[in-house]
Amino acid sequence: MTRTTLKLKPAAKTVRKAPTPRPPPSAARAPAATARTGASRPASPPRAGAPRPSAARPAGTHTPNARPARSGEGPVPRPRTPPKPLPDTGERLSKKVMQLKDCSRKEAEQYIEGGWVQVNGVVVEEPQHRVDRETITLDPNASLMELTPVTLLLNKPAGHTDGLEELTPLNAGSPARTGAPGRKVPPANARALLTPANHWEGDPTDTRVLKRHFHHLEADVELETGATGLVVFTQDWRTTRKLTEDMSTMEHEFLVEVKGEVQPDALKPIGYALKDERLDLPQVKVSVNSTTPESSRLRFAIKGSHPGLIAFLCEKAGLQILGMKRIRLGRVALSDLPVGQWRYLAGWEKF
């Protein structure tokens, strides 16, 4: 048997090399970028719309996150903080009147709302009005006895509601909102006509027009939107109770214009309908006031407020209505009040 002898070489000594220092991060990335792109390869131009590299910002600066401007757009404006309202200066007018008149705060407010106080020669009716060095004068004839509720009589135009609903921007006559084609514009509210500009110059009363006269007005008597005539607005609870509790017995007088010439015999169908117990109609008196070949005027006296009743009776007689006007409510007449204007209810007038 032959033996094989293996000769082992001595182990080489391990020599530890000193660590090679690493370049800074910025310097280490630069050769890598050069190696990827190549020194001889030209840099490609930036694509259209791509954001340009921004210059290095100093440490500590901060740019708010904002939407980058698109091509063709200008810089995005930053939202501005609204200015703070200036604080109110001076004192309330009611406090000044308290010192001037030596009265309570409630009485001072009543003097101001009554139109007895002037600031620099101008009547001011708001107790919260701020004054500082202005000249404040009180009318020597100032009295709190005139702070009584008022009642306004309006000659409502055709196409306006009777004012039983509250005043809103749409039914006050402002343009309707657009968006839906063919949308109908709501009718205007008769309350929108109760302004100092629409006060009748021929008002038989000597009542001064004040801002408080247009507050807390209540309407209780209905009138068709297509009709014109007398409408009542009141601040007096006694007038409101009269117009509601006695409405069924209060007489309403209308002048109705119909098409064509009308003879007394043409009103017989209306009489038959009023006598029909199945219809249960209120008391109505109808007569021919005037007639011409083109049109005729009928007079209706109805107990109570019944919108639509006149149209129903005219349809029974085959009459076409051209116009309708309420000229009297109880014992209060419309008289010569122009359409669209109002006046005060006089002290001697009773419903």
Automatic annotation (TrEMBL):
Arranged from A to Z, the UniProt key words for this protein are:
RNA-binding
Domain called RNA-binding S4: residue spans: 91-153
EC class, as a word, reads: isomerase
UniProt keyword RNA-binding present: yes
Q: Reaction(s) catalyzed by this protein?
A: uridine(2604) in 23S rRNA = pseudouridine(2604) in 23S rRNA; uridine(35) in tRNA(Tyr) = pseudouridine(35) in tRNA(Tyr)
Listed CDD domains: S4 (cd00165)
Where are stretches of biased composition, namely Pro residues? Answer: 76-86
- Top-rank taxon of the source lineage equals Bacteria
- Indicate whether Cell membrane appears among the record's keywords: no
Instruction: Name the Pfam families for this protein.
Output: S4
Q: Which SMART domains match?
A: S4
**Where is there biased composition of kind Low complexity?**
27-61
By its UniProt entry, which InterPro entries does this protein fall under?
PsdUridine_synth_cat_dom_sf (IPR020103), RsuA_PseudoU_synthase (IPR050343), S4_RNA-bd (IPR002942), S4_RNA-bd_sf (IPR036986)
Might you give the EC number(s) for this enzyme?
A: 5.4.99.21
Question: Where are the residues of the annotated region Disordered?
Answer: 1-94
Protein known as = Dual-specificity RNA pseudouridine synthase RluF
Name its species.
Answer: Rhodoferax mekongensis
